[in-house]
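Q: A reviewer asked whether we had any structural model of the full assembly, not just the individual parts. We don't, so I'm hoping you can provide one. Inputs are below.
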Amino acid sequence: EPEVTQTPSHQVTQMGQEVILRCVPISNHLYFYWYRQILGQKVEFLVSFYNNEISEKSEIFDDQFSVERPDGSNFTLKIRSTKLEDSAMYFCASSDQETQYFGPGTRLLVL
Amino acid sequence: AQSVTQLGSHVSVSEGALVLLRCNYSSSVPPYLFWYVQYPNQGLQLLLKYTSAATLVKGINGFEAEFKKSETSFHLTKPSAHMSDAAEYFCAVTSLMDTGRRALTFGSGTRLQVQP
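A: Here is a predicted structure for the entire assembly that you could use as a starting point for your response.
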């Protein structure tokens, strides 16, 4: 069964450093998303991407964040200058018309 | 705007007992509703979904949920709990009626404990 994959599974970085989180969506899906879950809190929407552009973003997704689909398979989330409060689990999802399927997540720890 | 309220951050049941996890939603347009399960240190797995077809939907692992528009509810049930059901459960809402609006809004989650 096709699934969404994410790399790395864990990343530790210093405050102010750039990180890139990678995702490989399900191959025939057209909609891609990033969500995050701060420890102990609810899952929060960050951004959605369709037809090679951002279709929707939340107030969390400020200028420090960017997304890209550099080739036909990868979907990346970049955080330019990480802050302590960026520590969270980051989930990628892709969808057909109705249902979003989630990857296993990348746990980001900013020190 | 859409929102989800999950009553009870923690629910504990005995093995073999009925599981009932509550979800109420708010949406100004017809909703699509989902239940996801998260096992420890894992991602979100789809349990079941309501997308405007049958109001009683069945999912994996014996779970089902009923969409009740009059009560704005989408409660998750399972007749008989199993130890392997211990996990965190998230209710989520979206609507495909709004052009481009596909982001899921999640509830705060309910942690299910199953006692032997």
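A: Points you may want to mention in the reply: Residues 69 and 75 of chain A are 5 Å apart (CA to CA). The radius of gyration of chain A is 13 Å.
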